[in-house]
Design a protein that fits this description.
The protein is about 85% helix and about 0% strand. It has about 70 residues and is mainly α. The protein folds into two domains: about 1-25; about 40-70, no CATH class.
């Protein structure tokens, strides 16, 4: 009887943990992984689109990336 109660509570707790992880996925981690899979030019374009860098910086970095791939 005691074992059955422990088993029931264990199943209920595991079900609650599973439900919470399904309802609230970790968005921060997935975006970090996505950025690691992107190429340098795509990351640069996204930074420019977000306004993190100016047009001059974008053009200079894009030129540097292009020269780096030719080597």
């Amino acid at each position: 009887m005691m074992f059955g109660m422990f088993l029931l509570w264990g199943v209920l707790i595991a079900l609650a943990v599973w439900a919470v992880t399904r309802l609230f996925p970790r968005h921060g981690r997935s975006s970090d992984l996505d950025e690691q899979e992107l190429g340098a030019e795509e990351i640069l374009a996204r930074r420019y689109a977000r306004g993190e860098i100016s047009r001059e910086e974008y053009e200079l970095m894009k030129r540097d990336i292009g020269q780096g791939e030719a080597i």
